[in-house]
Design goal:
Elements: H1 2-13, E1 17-18, H2 32-37, E2 42-51, E3 54-63, E4 78-84, H3 90-104, H4 109-122, E5 131-137, E6 141-146, E7 149-154, H5 157-168, H6 175-181
Antiparallel strand pairs: 1-2, 2-3, 3-4, 4-5, 5-6, 6-7
Helix pairs in contact: 3-4, 3-5
């Protein structure tokens, strides 16, 4: 009996990926900063990311009238909003982002170093309830917001593709979350 309880606890702790709501409520309005960035924005999917059972953040994918274009991502903007469940410093967020980008992409070490510097200068510390929103700008790069206020942008299409691949690439380390984010896009 004790072994079964321990095994169940261990499986819970090792659950990396997502858990959370996948039902999309059509009456949810996008936050104003997303509305300004994406015409006709609608919620495409949402879920939670957990690491060793601990909730790290809740995520929402917002898309426009063209939806999410997995085959041709440069055709349509989208936004990924993360609401953090705990505190992290900006350097940790940037460093973890680079680690995950390396898992899904093939940029050079020089590019990763440049992107790390850019993210460290742009991102801010977060506490429970803080939102960081990234908006994918086709053929341009990515724009970032902290609780709806502009942080700045990284005008590099290759960076934007690599950054959003952390969540949306088939090679993501958060496959369950990806599935929930893409739940209402026709992609899985």
């Amino acid at each position: 009996m004790a072994i079964r309880i321990f095994s169940a606890c261990l499986l819970t702790l090792l659950s990396v990926g997502s858990a959370g709501a996948t039902d999309i409520q059509p009456d949810i309005s996008p936050p104003p900063h997303i509305q300004r960035a994406i015409a006709d924005a609608r919620l495409a999917g949402q879920g939670s990311f957990r690491w060793f059972g601990l909730l790290i953040y809740d995520a929402q994918l917002w898309v426009g009238s063209q939806g999410y274009q997995a085959e041709a991502p440069d055709n349509a903007p989208f936004a990924l909003d993360l609401r953090y469940a705990r505190s992290f410093d900006s350097d940790s967020i940037a460093e973890t982002s680079i680690e995950e980008m390396k898992k899904t992409g093939s940029a050079s070490d020089e590019q990763y170093s440049q992107w790390l510097r850019q993210m460290k200068s742009l991102f801010k510390n977060v506490v429970k309830g803080t939102h960081i929103t990234g908006v994918y700008l086709p053929n341009h790069g990515a724009r970032f917001f902290l609780d709806g206020k502009a942080l700045g942008e990284i005008p590099d299409p290759q960076f934007a593709h690599a950054f959003f691949s952390i969540w949306l690439s088939p090679n993501t380390s958060a496959a369950a979350l990806r599935k929930k984010l893409l739940a209402h896009t026709g992609h899985d």
